[in-house]
Amino acid sequence: MIQFGPNSTTFLIAGEVYPSQVRATAHGVSAAVGKLGALFATVIYNYIGNRTKFWVVTWIPLLGAVLTYVFIPDTTGLDLREQERYWQKVREGRQEEYHGIAVHPRHLSLFERVVLKRHLRYDPKADAKAKVDELRSLWEKMEADVGKEGQGKGDGASLVSSKVSSYFAWEKQGSPRLDGKEKGKNE
Question: Residue 122 above 90 pLDDT?
């Protein structure tokens, strides 16, 4: 338990949980709080007896384990880009518009599931549509920027893959959509 806290919760979790814009600062604050906890233990151990030290060594790490279970999300298998999509929506004040895997119950902490109820927004179909819309707007922005520069059409290799770029170019030409409905007709 002693090695679990300083190694895992101070360094590994902080690198995965915090949004990239505040990651370094939040990681530093987390490390500082961990050092304060170590300082507290060092000072308190000078004023308590040996028998009491064993009780402190038993219960404080268990309290830390419970707090970790309750408040730390499980980011195992979660793509950091997907977490950034979620945090971008949070920073914009539009977290209710995010329906992706980052709010799936298996990736949320107990506090987020029970108290904040973030898992209720998980909807894979709405997320897939949002991802396509985001890619389309990124592709359109890229195409507009390339057109302004007078370089002709770009393949989008830097921002979107060539397959995605060719799909949106094909779609823009007014070709029938993959679901069989003609573009522009009332649905």
Answer: yes
End-to-end CA distance of the chain: 60
Q: What's the half-sphere exposure (Cβ side, CA atoms, 13 Å) at 38?
A: 11
Helices (H), strands (E): how many in the chain?
7, 0
User: Phi first, then psi: what are they for 76, rounded to 5°?
Assistant: -60, 125
| Averaged pLDDT score across all residues of the chain | 80
Using an 8 Å Cβ cutoff, are 96 and 104 in contact? no
Give ∠ CA 90-95-101 in degrees, rounded to 5: 100
Q: Is the pLDDT of residue 104 over 60?
A: yes
- Is the pTM higher than 0.70? The answer reads no
Q: Which two tokens stand for residue 2?
A: 């002693």
d(CA 177, CA 165): 15
Torsion (CA) 65, 66, 71, 73 in degrees, nearest 10: 60
- Please report, for residues 22, 33, 82, 100, 103, the alpha-carbon distance to residue 87 in angstroms, rounded to integers and kept in the order given: 11, 23, 9, 11, 11
* Pick from 130, 46, 49, 43: nearest CA to 86: 130
pLDDT (tens digit per residue) in 13-66: 877 888 888 888 988 888 888 888 888 888 988 999 989 988 888 888 788 889
